[in-house]
Amino acid sequence: MKEDIAELSINTVRVLAADAVQKANSGHPGTPMALAPLGHLLWTESMNYNPDNPDWPARDRFVLSCGHACMLQYSFLYLTGYALTLEDIKNFRQLHSKTAGHPERGLLEGIEVTTGPLGQGFANGVGMCISQQYLASRYNKPDYDLFDYYIYAICSDGDIMEGISSESASLAGHLGLGHLIYFYDNNHITIEGETDLAFNEDVGKRFEAYDWHVQTIADVKDLEALSKAVENAKKENVKPSLIIVRSHIAYGSPNKIDTKEAHGSALGEDEVKLVKQELGFDPDKYFEVPEAVLDYYQKAGKKGQQAEDEWNKLYNSYKKKYPDLAEEYELLRKGELPEGWDEGLPNFKPDDGGMATRKASGTFLNKVAEKIPTLIGGAADLAPSTGTLLKEYSSFSKKDHGGRNFHFGIREHAMGGIVNGMALTKGIRPFGATFLIFSDYMRPAVRLAAIMEIPSIFVYTHDSIGLGEDGTTHQPIEHLISLRAIPNLTVIRPADANETVEAWKAALAAKGPSALIFTRQKLPIIDASIYSSTEGLQKGAYIISDCEEKPEIILIASGSEVQLVLEAQKVLKKKKIQVRVVSMPSWELFEAQDDSYKQDIFPTQIRKRLAVEAGSPIGWQKYVTEDGGVIGINQFGASGPGKEVLAEYGFSIDNVVEKAKEILGGK
Hints:
Helix content: 40-55%
Mean pLDDT: 97
Distance between the termini: 92 Å
């Protein structure tokens, strides 16, 4: 009877996938049909989860890295009792449906992470496991294994081929992330045809070289072998596990099994009927879910309530024995920061001399780290250059999962995805750092952080041609505007050390992702006795220096160019020109302000404006209007001392003054 209900249940998932994709006339039916046995094992036996409380802290996490196979995940979420109906399944890929074309976090409970761009989910799972291990190291105590959950993921050939997975797998093995259990769906099929068109490596040996525990299952339909493999993976608590499963895409389809046609398009109405006949279903019925199957899966889902009840008892006992740690965890899990975290932060003085904003950032991090115990992160082999080493703390390693410094290695692709995975664990505040030019490597991860609106913090230094001698290849030009073009991402480029403190405060208070942009070169500390407080950064733009009468022109700048326009203001003042200077470190923070504040900064009647930024001028036209101008860069940089390169490209006091006078009609 147990075998009969299992087979009927698995076939029900196959038919649901075929029907949903056919009704939408869009999607990927083959992989859900092939992997239905694996999904069955995970949701009935292997994973701890509770549909009635999808956010239970000790639940296992599931990542569908091959997000195109989402009908597999949707089917099991519906069948096991999550807030998903059969009607939602029927509305697969339709506008405003919960069942989007790829899994989207926030649309549907039970979706841990937004996946689709192949390899990103693989990296996210590594980040989730890092967070699990860090929480366990900080909060678990003898007899109180609060955070002992696993991260399960399903990966396709596409995930395995993408470079981000290689980077992530290498780091996961190096760090000994034993709570990762990944399945590689080895179905031999990609969109263009057989995988051996472009791919014939021995994946198992590759992952063994990464120091993973590797097992191979000859047939995904062998539930007993699958179950044993999962148990073996759980016993291996040091190495991450890869379970390679051989499957047959579109299993149950007489004519399209093991074909590329079953990968990315509907099977066709006639073929779907043949699938139903093959699997013992009525070919004239659609979205058929036998009552026995629904009852079977819902009972499996309800087992999670018992598991959570047991965990809650353990946690309540823990709270009595370790009240301070419990209070700390509960506060951080809610997304709040400890009381007084922003007290005693660095306050830099002009007498301190010039300071690169990357250095000021490092000073801030080392000051605030003691107050925010789950602020963890690192750099892509650039901690000395990005100033991101937490000096009083150890490094996260295979022997120390409580370390707070992460050495991502030269793996920017993976770092972005891993930081996102870390941020998906409530309570963890992660950051990852590299040079701004290398944000190109991270763009898919930054974009996904913005889609999910999670609090990942991306630290980018060496922010302009001002970095100097490294030259064209390392000098960012288009990068600021390309980051600003990403919806939901807050980009902040501070003008000095004190604005840097404010930038970090804004990022730590944000609910979504932030990109903090810092200089390599030293910048003067803005004198608070002369100019406005840098706390104005919190509003994105503020008047840092105004004039005595109505402004004739507004000079606007971000980052290192703020000092330049302040000096230009002095020259223009001597020429009896009334100049307002606006520091504008963040367009996104400014656009969040009300119209009244915006009008205070940029009065409609003052049309003469000049923006100065050592990057692409694209986008600044919104703020300078047609009566103004922009000093920016529309070409690549050059190798040479930073000050000389800046001057060569027009970032000098004289050029700002001349451009301002030109806008004023040659005054």
